[in-house]
Amino acid sequence: MTLFAIGPAGAEGPARTPGAAATAWGVRVSVAGGAGAGTTTVASPPNPTPAVESFAYPSDGSVVTASSSTSSAATDVQRNASARAESVVTGISIFKGEITADAVTARASAGTGPSGAGGNVLGSGVTNLVALGQPVTGGRVALGDWGQLTVGSEAVDRSAPAGAKGYRTFVTEIDVHLTADHDGLPANSEIQIGYADVTAQTAPPPPPTTTPTPTETAPTETTATPDVRSADSPRDRMPKAGKKVKAAPLTVHPKLTAGRYVFPVYGPSSYIDTFGAARSDVSYHHGDDIFGQLGQPLLAVADGTLFSVGWNKVGGNRLWLLDSQGNQFYYAHLSAFSTAAVDGAHVKAGEVVGFMGRTGDAEGTPYHLHFEVHPVSLLYLGYDGAVDPTAYLDAWSHQQDLPFPVVTGWAPAIPGGRAAPEPGAILLGMSDISTADGLDPASLQRALTPLKPSALMQTLVPTQPAPAKDLGRG
User: Fold this and answer.
1) pTM assigned to the model
2) What's the per-residue H, E or C state across 345-377?
3) Residue 231 pLDDT more than 60?
């Protein structure tokens, strides 16, 4: 993780160190179109306290019961980064015994050293798994005409910022996906048991000895200014014919001074610095991925105005937030929006604007929020005006409460805290309701109408902006 010596509203003075993150949980029930439940999620950072509990859902245990669930997570970045996560669940019964297992163990580890970064999921497995009367040892098994059972699902991601080495792996030992309504659960619901997720990354190389000012640092190598037309896709933002552009991540961190800033995810979560890492659908990763649980509340990081609330192919359900200074923040892969999330809505720092998911090109990945920071001083660079959000995320406070009544449902209660609010809507499908993209000045004009434009917005919005097409980014 990249750490910075920072003040309450900005980030400066880089001090590069390794990074690590670990997450584990025992049981998760995700109900399509409704509230689910799960055991406690343990994440390091911020809180690696182990969780030991039993579990039943619903209260009579007719869908899932587990005699015990023990989850733990630990990280260390004193010299080289290392991360460990483990979940052990025993005495499992699903759908009143249609699926049973004596024990499930999900175990993952990752670390860094002189040769780079690596890890494994050794020790993960299921003991005496039986589905519909037949023993199951691994792979994928059909569950009658109503579902599918997957055993030992795992993945590896080695992406990292330029000059660094990274390794991330996660494993889900039992995953039951319903293709039709069954025994009280609707189609598209999911039951997962035994999850462990770890990340380790070497320290990025030190920055240049001379740090240029924002106006002196640009991510393009060009013979003319690019024709910036779309915030959500570089494919719709190509330079005019004959112009050569080579994108590269910015290394500056302008101060954000619009007021109080808060961390964008409520409750336990984990992240490391992946800004600048390679991505297949864009020139490089323009933000950080913050991992958590399905339906976890996502918060406005500052007082501001929402715009481009809607869906696109890559970002899925996404929105933008404009603070009073003119800085912009991008949220992607949401499972749903809150009732506050409409174009032109004014929100307060800490207000719930959406819920964590994996829509768009994040389908099949662990649930996470893709989050970007676009300082006002760099908006002229368009899509490549994003800066590394890690230092800001490290500095922003984690909100401990929500400013309106809450109910249970999205996840287990957070020790010492409160549960999160019900979603304003659970989105099963939708078309793009946004009027424009994120960084095109025309979208700001449309999104804020009929709001009275401020002097700042008058400087950002030209009188005759070019039309834009929103293609999406993740």
Assistant:
1) 0.53
2) CEECCCCEEEECECCHHHCCCCCEEEEEEECHH
3) no
